[in-house]
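S1.2 Input.
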Amino acid sequence: MDTRRLYSFVKIVDAGSITRAADILHIAQPALSQQLSMLEAQFKQQLLIRSKRGVAPTEAGRALYRHAQLILRQVELAHSAVDVSGRAPAGSVSVGLAPYSMGAALALPLLRTVRERYPDILLHINENFGGVISEAIMTGRMDMAFIYGAGPLRGVQFEPLRTEGLFLIAAPGGAGPASRGEDVSLEELADVALLLPSRIHTIRQVVEAAFQQASLQPKVVGEIESVLTLVSAVGADLGATVLPWSAARAILDVRHLVVRRIVNPAIRVKLSLCTSDHQPLSEPAHAVHDLFHELIADFGEGDSHSSSAA
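S1.3 Output.
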């Protein structure tokens, strides 16, 4: 198999046009068309549908596109491993972090430690939703991620590292009776105006599941995906929110807000370090993977509000 043809095929699909792909690859269009024809002859399948608007992959083409991405990623990892053999880890490492989680609190320590210990590693940090991140891991576009959940999910290996309880975060006096005392019951929380992420987010799903199990209904008055906007809205007393302790602690460092543990029942979320179950980590990715473990262990010291996962 000529990997150059696979690379060209991926670029054609990404560009949606043989002409545009030829410009990107800096090769003549007839030569690129010939590579495509040879690939279709090799697989004995039509891989692209051509139209006036460009090209689109057939079912066979979509299957080849997915496998080609994995194959090309493996070739890239092989080249990187050979290049850095015997030297300090070097290369690109992509990491996904779930918003409203300890991952966000770990971002700066991770970046700082990577720069100090492995100056030749280029760290790419992507804060996004778990579904988006896990898909990127499955397709080889991301090396690892620290996200909510413990699986199972096809193509992704989950390594549970942390379990955290959820807390009510509100402006002083903004949650009424629920803002007084150290704890707040789920029944009291039902009367609090809440600002939460949308239903695609694990935090929202876990909160609503707890309310449903208790035959209660959360009073959601706004859906906010931006952490900065959420902090500002809670500080302006436009509503309260629910967060794990690690995320709440980061907010309390910069805002004077009320924090109350949710009890009767307590609501807990699991956080896992995720990698692909069919692609090995590169040497630099292994180094970052080990740093995750180290930083998470350090993060937990002296924190009585959360616990490490078994």
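S1.4 Remarks. DSSP finds eleven helices and 13 strands in the chain.
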